[in-house]
User: Fold this.
Amino acid sequence: MTTKRSPLVRVLHYLAVTVLILALLSPLVGFFINAFAFRWFYPQLIPQEITFRAWENIADPNSKVIEALINSTIIAVSVTLVSIIIGLPAARALGLYQFRGKTIVEFLILAPTIVPGIAVAIGLNINFLRWGLAGTMLGVGLVHLVPVMPYVVLTLSGVFANYNPEFEEQARTLGAGAIRTFINVTLPAIFPGIVVAGLFAFLVSWGQYILTFLIGSGRILTLPVLLFSTASGGNNANIAAMSLVFIAPAILILILTSRYLSGSSSAIGGFGKV
Amino acid sequence: MTHVSLNNLTKIYAGADVPAVNNFSLDIPTGRLIAFLGPSGCGKTTTLKMLAGLIKPTSGKIHFDGEDISSVPSEKRGAVMVFQNYLLFPYMSVGDNVGFGLKMRGVDKKVIQKRVAEMLELVKLPNIAKRRPSQLSGGQQQRVALARALITDPRVLLLDEPLSNLDAHLRDEMRELILSIQKDLGVTTVFVTHDQEEAVLLADDIALMFDGVLQQYAHPVEFYTRPISEKAARFFGGVNFIPATRTNNHIKTPIADLKFDAQYADKAPSGDVVVTIRPEQIELNSNQSHNCVQGVVQSRIYVGTYTRYKIALDDYEIEAVRSADTFGQIEEGQSITVHFPEDKLWVVPATDS
Assistant:
C-alpha cells in the first residue's frame, strides 16, 4: 500500500471499496428502516411513522424469538467449544507431522464442505432417529459439527504449520509439566488461531438452517428456523427486526475478534516466525 | 553437581532401519564440560535430547549420580536444555522468561525477581528484565536463554549448538562467557556441535560420533595426536594418510621404512594400518638421520600466519604446514628432505575407508 500509484488506480481502488461496502451494508440499512417502520408503502422514500411494534412483537413470548435466541446461543457456543477441543489434536497432527495417508485425511476433513448439508442430514437422520438423537439439542449440536469441523481443523492446522513444538520441549526441561506447558506455552501461541477458528465455528453453527430443521424434527427452534417461518408470514417489520436479532451477535463477535483476522498480523502465526 | 553416565543408550526412530544412536556409553565426571561432536545427523542432538528426557531411548539407561533417571520425566530431571535458536517465549518479558523455571516450581514472586536480577547480572545483561525478547540481538537472546536455564540450578546443563547462530566476534565472547560461568558454577555441562574447533576450544573432553556410534571419547589433544580412525583424523583436519604395515616400532610404507615411537606401540593398531601425521608436525629440510624421505615441492600457499606446502613422495602427496617465513626459502619444484618425527607419527586401522 505504500507504493505510489497513478491517480486513476487510486480512484478505481476507492470506488471498488465503496461499492463493496455499499453492497454489504445496503441490505442492513433496509432491515434497519423496516424494523422501525409503520405502514411503509410505495412511493414513500422513507417511512412516515416510526414504531417499535415489531420489537414488541418479537419480545412477546408467543413469538418464541427469545426461546430461539437461547437455543441458538446454547447450540452455537457448545458446538464452538466441542469443535475446538476435538479439532486441536487433529490440527496439530496435520500441521506438525508428516504421516502416511495425510492427504486422504485432509480430503476427508474437507469433504463436508463439498457434500451438501441436506445429503448429510437425511443420511444421519435415520440413525439419529434410531439412537433417539433426532429432535434433541444434543442431536442438533452433533450434526452442526459436520459443517463446522472443516473450518476449525483447517484454521488450526494453519496455526500449527507455523508452530515450533520445541518451545514446549524448552518449557518441559525448565520444569513445566504437560498441563502447565499447554497453558503457559502452547495456548498463548495458538490463541489467536483458536479465536479465529472459534469465530468460524460459531458463525457456521449460528447460521445453520437445513441441518437444524431436519435433525431437530421441528422441535428444536433456533433463530434461522424461526426466521424462515416468519419470512413466509410476510410481515416485513417483524422479519426485519428478527433478522437484526439474528445478525447482531454475529457482527458483535466479528468486531470483537477482528484484530485477530487481519492477514498480515502474526495472529495465526504460532511462534514459528520469531 | 552431577555425575552423568549413559549406558548402552540406543535410539531407533519409528520406521528407521538404522539406529540414530547405537549402543552409546559414556561417563561424565561431575562438573566437566563435554562436547558431543560430529557431522549433522550423527545422533548427537538425539543423545542430548535423551539426556534431557525429551526423547525416550529405545534401550539403555541414564544415571545421574548413580540414580537411574531413565524414566523420570523431563520436567523433574533437572537437565535443562538451551536450544540452538534460543526459544525465548515471545509474549513474555525477558524477566518472565528468565524466571519461568522458578515460576513453574511455585517460587515466591519476590524471590524470583531477585534471582532473575542475579542471573541477568551473571550473563552480563543487567537491567533488561522489562524488555521484550524481540528487542534483543541474537547474542543477547542467547545469554537470556542461558540465564533462564541456570536459574533453576540444573543438575546438568545441555547446550545445543550454543555458538553456531552467532557472528564470529560474538562467538569468542560467548564462548568465554560459557566457559567462565561453567567453571564458576561447576555445573556438569554437555554441548553439541558440528565444529571441531569449537569443541576443542570449549570442551574438557570430546565425544566424537559418526552415524550414531561413539568413535572416541578423549581430551581434545588426543584427536590431533592419536585419532582412533582415519575418519576421525580427517574430521580434525588430518590430511596425510599413507598405507603401511606396522610391527612393533617399525612402520613399513611404500615410500620408506619409518621408526615409530615405542611409547605408543602398545596403544596403536598393528598389521595393515594407515600411517598419519599432522601437517604442522612435518619438518622440512631436516638433517635427521632417520624417518626422512626425499620429495618434490608441488605447490605452496602463503596463508599469512603460515605457509602450506604440497609435497610429492613418489606416488603419494602429503601436506606440510610451516611458519610463514619459510615461504621465501622453499620453491615450487624444489627437491626437499621431509622428516617425520617418530613421536609425532600415528597409525590408524587400515580397514577404515
